[in-house]
C-alpha cells in the first residue's frame, strides 16, 4: 500500500498527541527550526521536556566541551550534544514517575549559506531514542547538504527534515528503507542532499549501514557515498578535505591480483610526485552504480560480497553515480585543490577518449577534458596484452586513439598528465575479474591463484559470488567422467 505523506504540522501533532514520546531538542545554528514545528502544532507540553540553543561558542563549550580546530558543525559535536542531552533526561526524570515514557534527544548543528554565498550550507542531525521504555536507545545520525540559495529557505528546510527524522524514528524504524524515503517527505533533492546516514542500537542490529549508503545513491539522495574498512559510513568532506586523492575504478567482482598490482604501482608512482603528501593521501576503490547494475537490477548481496572483500583488504570504498570520469574529478574538487590521481586500465583509457560520453556537453569532449585537466590531475595507465596471442603489450605509446583526438592525447602525454605504470607484474597481467567470477560460479579450480592471499579462503568460507562447495564437487566429478570417457575412447581406437 502506498505510504500516506503527512505535512510537517501533522507529523509534529501526531507525536505531540502520543503521551509516551518525551524528550529534548538542542539546536546550534539555523535557529530553533525543528522544535518550532512542535510548539506551533499544539500539545507540545506532552512532548518537549526542554528546548535549547547553545548558540554562543563559549556557552556551547561550557556545556559540551571544546572542539578540535574550533569546528562546530561536525560529527563529534553532534555526538556530544545527543549523548549529553539524553543522559540529562535519564538523570533528571524519575523513571518511576514516567514508567511508560519513550525518551528521545534530538540535536543538530547546522551552518546555512553565508551572506556572500561563497559557502553552501550543511549540517549534522541526530536522534537518540527508545522504541519502548524498557529498551536501550537507538541512534540515527545523518549529514545533509543544503542547496537553496537563501539562508531563510535553508532554515525552513532544516525544520522540515528534523521533523521527518523524529517522526520516522517512531513510525518507520522497523523498515529502514521506508525511513530513508520518508526523510524527503515535503522536500526535494534540489533542497537537500543526504550524503551520510548511520543507524545503530537494539532495533537496528540487523541493519548493514553499507546498504543504507548504497540506497542513498540508488534512490538519488546523493551521487556518492564512502565507507571505511570497518564498514562505517563516512561523511565525504570529513575524509577528503584538502587531501591528495588516488582512485581506482573497477567492478572488483571479485578483486584480483591485477587490481592489487594496479593500486600498488599507482600508489608508488603517485607518492613520488612533488605535490603529494603521503601523510595526507586517501586511496579510494570506486564502484559505480553502472557497474553494480551490470546484470540488471542491483543485487545487494553481490554488492556486499565485493564490499566485504575490499574492506577485509583494508580499503576505503566509494560508491558513485559518476559514469564519466570528469564528473568524479569535479566531485573530488569540491573537497580539495591538491593533486589527484586516477589509475586506469587500457579499456577505461580508450573509453575516456570515446566522444559518445560527452554529447550532452556543449563543448563535447573538450569541455569534459577541460574539467579533468584544469585540475591538478595525473592519470596512471596500467598496460595490457593485445588480442593476437597476447604478445603485444599495449600502453600509452600505442594506445588506439581516433586520429581526430590524437593531438589532444599527444598533448596530455607530452605534458606528463598521462603516465605509464612500467613496474607491473607480468604474471598477473592476463587475469580478468569476469573469468575469475565464471570459474567461481562454475566450481572450476585454479581461480584461487588469481586473487590476493586469503581472499580465496574468504570466498569459500562465506560462499561469496555464488561459490558453493557442491559446484566444485560437481565440476570435479564432471571432469573425472570426461577423462574416463576419453580413456575408454583412446583404448577403443587402439584396440
Describe the structure.
The chain is α/β, with parallel strands linked by helices and 495 residues long. It has three domains: 8-207, CinA-like (Maf protein), CATH 3.90.950.20; 239-431, Rossmann fold; 436-494, no CATH class. Helix content is 40%, strand content 19%. It has 18 helices and 16 strands. It has helices spanning 8-16, 33-41, 57-64, 75-92, 151-171, 176-182, 209-218, 236-240, 257-270, 289-292, 300-312, 325-332, 346-352, 364-373, 406-414, 433-442, 455-462, 469-494, and strands at residues 21-28, 48-52, 102-111, 121-129, 138-146, 192-200, 224-227, 233-234, 244-249, 281-288, 317-320, 340-345, 377-382, 384-385, 393-394, 418-420. The strands form three sheets. It has an eight-stranded mixed sheet, with helices on both faces. A six-stranded mixed sheet has the order 2-1-3-4-5-6, sandwiched between helices. Strands 14-15 form a two-stranded antiparallel sheet. Strand 9, helix 9 and strand 10 (281-288) form a beta-alpha-beta unit. The longest helix is centred in the C-terminal third of the chain and has 26 residues, at 469-494. The chain is globular. It starts with 7 loop residues before the first helix and ends with a helix.
Amino acid at each position: 500500500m502506498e505510504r500516506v505523506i503527512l505535512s510537517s504540522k501533522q507529523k509534529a501533532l501526531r507525536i505531540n498527541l502520543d503521551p509516551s514520546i518525551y524528550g529534548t531538542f538542542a539546536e546550534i545554528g539555523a535557529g530553533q527550526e525543528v522544535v518550532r514545528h512542535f510548539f506551533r502544532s499544539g500539545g507540545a507540553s506532552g512532548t518537549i521536556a526542554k528546548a535549547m540553543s547553545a548558540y554562543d561558542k563559549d556557552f556551547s563549550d561550557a556545556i559540551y566541551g571544546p572542539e578540535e580546530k574550533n569546528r562546530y558543525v561536525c560529527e563529534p559535536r553532534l555526538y556530544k550534544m545527543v549523548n549529553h542531552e539524553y543522559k540529562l533526561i535519564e538523570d533528571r526524570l524519575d523513571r518511576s514517575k514516567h514508567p511508560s515514557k519513550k525518551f528521545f534527544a534530538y540535536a543538530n548543528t547546522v551552518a546555512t549559506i553565508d551572506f556572500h554565498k561563497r559557502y553552501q550550507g550543511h549540517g549534522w542531525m541526530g536522534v537518540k531514542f527508545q522504541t519502548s521504555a524498557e529498551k536501550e536507545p537507538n541512534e540515527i545520525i545523518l549529514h545533509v547538504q543544503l542547496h537553496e540559495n537563501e539562508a531563510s529557505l535553508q532554515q525552513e528546510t532544516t525544520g522540515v527534515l528534523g521533523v521527518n527524522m523524529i517522526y520516522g524514528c517512531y513510525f518507520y524504524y522497523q523498515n529502514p528503507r521506508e525511513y530513508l524515503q520518508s526523510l524527503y517527505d515535503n522536500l526535494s533533492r534540489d533542497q537537500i542532499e543526504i550524503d551520510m546516514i548511520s543507524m545503530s542500537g537494539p532495533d537496528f542490529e540487523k541493519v548493514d549501514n553499507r546498504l543504507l549508503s548504497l540506497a542513498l545513491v540508488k534512490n538519488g539522495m546523493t551521487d556518492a557515498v564512502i565507507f571505511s574498512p570497518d564498514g562505517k559510513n563516512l561523511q565525504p568532506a570529513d575524509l577528503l578535505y584538502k587531501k591528495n586523492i588516488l582512485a581506482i575504478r573497477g567492478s572488483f567482482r571479485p578483486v584480483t591480483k591485477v587490481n592489487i598490482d594496479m593500486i600498488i604501482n599507482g600508489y608508488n608512482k603517485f607518492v613520488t610526485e612533488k605535490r603529494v603528501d603521503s601523510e595526507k593521501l586517501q586511496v579510494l576503490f570506486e564502484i559505480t552504480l553502472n557497474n553494480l547494475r551490470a546484470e540488471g537490477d542491483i543485487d545487494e548481496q553481490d554488492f556486499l560480497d565485493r564490499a566485504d572483500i575490499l574492506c577485509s583488504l583494508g580499503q576505503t570504498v566509494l560508491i558513485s553515480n559518476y559514469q564519466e570520469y570528469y564528473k568524479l574529478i569535479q566531485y573530488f574538487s569540491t573537497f580539495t585543490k591538491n593533486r589527484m590521481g586516477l589509475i586506469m586500465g587500457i579499456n577505461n583509457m580508450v573509453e575516456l577518449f570515446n566522444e559518445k560520453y560527452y554529447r550532452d556537453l556543449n563543448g563535447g569532449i573538450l569541455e569534459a577534458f577541460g574539467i579533468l585537466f584544469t585540475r591538478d590531475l595525473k592519470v596512471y595507465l596500467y598496460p595490457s596484452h593485445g588480442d593476437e596471442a597476447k604478445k603485444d603489450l599495449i600502453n600509452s605509446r600505442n594506445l588506439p586513439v581516433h586520429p581526430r583526438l590524437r593531438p589532444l592525447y599527444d598533448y596530455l602525454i607530452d605534458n606528463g598528465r598521462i603516465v605509464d605504470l612500467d613496474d607491473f607484474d607480468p604474471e598477473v597481467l592476463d587475469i580478468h575479474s569476469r573469468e575469475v567470477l565464471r570459474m567461481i560460479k562454475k566450481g572450476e579450480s585454479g581461480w584461487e591463484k588469481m586473487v590476493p592471499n586469503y581472499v580465496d579462503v574468504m570466498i569459500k568460507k562465506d560462499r561469496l559470488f555464488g561459490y558453493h562447495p557442491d559446484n566444485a564437487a560437481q565440476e570435479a566429478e564432471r571432469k573425472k567422467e570426461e577423462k574416463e570417457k576419453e580413456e575408454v575412447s583412446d583404448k577403443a581406437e587402439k584396440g
